[in-house]
């Protein structure tokens, strides 16, 4: 069975993908003028920790074999990459992550995006496996002890933006990451989502049916289910 998460458990992503295929097939049997609606695929809560004093790599499959995310934490630094926290994305046709580069050192820094950010409205960097890439396919720097341009050195939650293409079209997605207050740039991958080709997605958005979240929703969400209902009512009254 295909898995789409960092724990190796069956993911909701695969189920929704097959549901979309089944819906498309049923529609095609009735009429050739309709197709399956584009969708956003959400991983569910992951909570995979990359702790201090730990060298660890995990991959998370996306829509099919050959498309996946890569996360890494390393304490055995190569050159200046000590206590390295990194990310990359791999696509069958192409892949890139939202970030900036420093060509002099072949360093690639991931943007720390706020919730609600339009993922496609970013500068994207294609992964390049430089001589410093001791951790295989990981080329994007979240943080390291000597990466002065890294955006993820402070504790707290942010979003990574990525895109990939399996040959059917460009797809965008996000990963929610929490940087720890502990030493050595420890971090936790909380969850992630990606959209079908042609479907827009914002950081934190988990389905096509929901509006893109914003910073104002966080206070309501902190109040639990009652706060969530109140926030949804307030959104419904917003023109």
Portion of residues in helices?
Answer: 10-25%
Order of helices and strands: HEEEEEEEEEEEEHH
Low-confidence stretches: 10-35, 217-228, 233-239
- Count of discrete alpha- or pi-helical segments spanning 4 or more residues: 3
Return the structural class. Answer: alpha+beta
SS elements, strand count: 12
Major sheet summary line: 12 strands, mixed
User: How many domains would you count in the coordinates?
Assistant: 2
Q: Please state the average pLDDT score.
A: 74
Q: N-to-C terminal Cα separation, in Å?
A: 44 Å
Shape call:
globular
The percent range for strand residues is 25-35%
Radius of gyration: 19 Å
Task: Record the SSE blueprint.
Layout lengths: L11 H19 L9 E3 L5 E3 L5 E6 L6 E7 L9 E7 L3 E9 L4 E4 L13 E2 L14 E4 L12 E10 L4 E10 L7 E9 L21 H5 L3 H12 L3
Parallel strand pairs: 7-9
Antiparallel strand pairs: 1-12, 2-12, 3-4, 4-5, 5-9, 6-7, 6-8, 6-10, 10-11, 11-12
Keywords for this entry:
239 residues; 15% helix; twelve-stranded mixed beta sheet; alpha+beta; globular; 2 domains
Provide structural commentary.
This protein has 3 helices and 12 strands. The protein is α+β, with helices and mostly antiparallel strands and 239 residues long. It has helices at 12-30, 217-221, 225-236, and strands at residues 40-42, 48-50, 56-61, 68-74, 84-90, 94-102, 107-110, 124-125, 140-143, 156-165, 170-179, 187-195. It is globular and about 45 Å long. The relative contact order is 0.17. Strands 1, 2, 3, 4, 5, 6, 7, 8, 9, 10, 11 and 12 form a 12-stranded mixed beta sheet that branches.
């Amino acid at each position: 069975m295909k898995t789409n998460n960092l724990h190796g458990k069956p993911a909701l992503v695969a189920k929704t993908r097959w549901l979309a295929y089944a819906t498309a097939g049923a529609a095609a049997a009735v009429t050739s003028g309709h197709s399956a609606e584009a969708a956003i695929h959400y991983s569910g809560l992951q909570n995979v920790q990359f702790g201090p004093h730990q060298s660890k790599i995990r991959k998370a499959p996306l829509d099919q074999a050959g498309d996946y995310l890569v996360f890494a934490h390393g304490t055995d630094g190569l050159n200046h990459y000590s206590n390295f926290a990194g990310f990359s994305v791999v696509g069958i046709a192409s892949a890139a992550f939202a970030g900036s580069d420093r060509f002099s050192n072949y360093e690639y820094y991931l943007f720390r995006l706020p919730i609600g950010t339009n993922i496609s409205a970013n500068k994207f960097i294609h992964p390049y496996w430089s001589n410093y890439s001791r951790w295989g396919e990981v080329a994007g720097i979240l943080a390291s002890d000597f990466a002065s341009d890294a955006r993820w050195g402070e504790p707290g939650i942010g979003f990574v933006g990525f895109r990939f293409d399996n040959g059917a079209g460009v797809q965008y997605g996000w990963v929610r990451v929490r940087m720890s207050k502990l030493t050595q740039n420890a971090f936790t991958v909380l969850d992630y989502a990606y959209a079908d080709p042609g479907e827009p997605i914002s950081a934190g958005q988990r389905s096509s049916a929901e509006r893109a979240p914003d910073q104002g929703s966080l206070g309501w969400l902190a109040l639990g289910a009652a706060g969530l209902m109140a926030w949804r009512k307030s959104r419904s009254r917003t023109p």
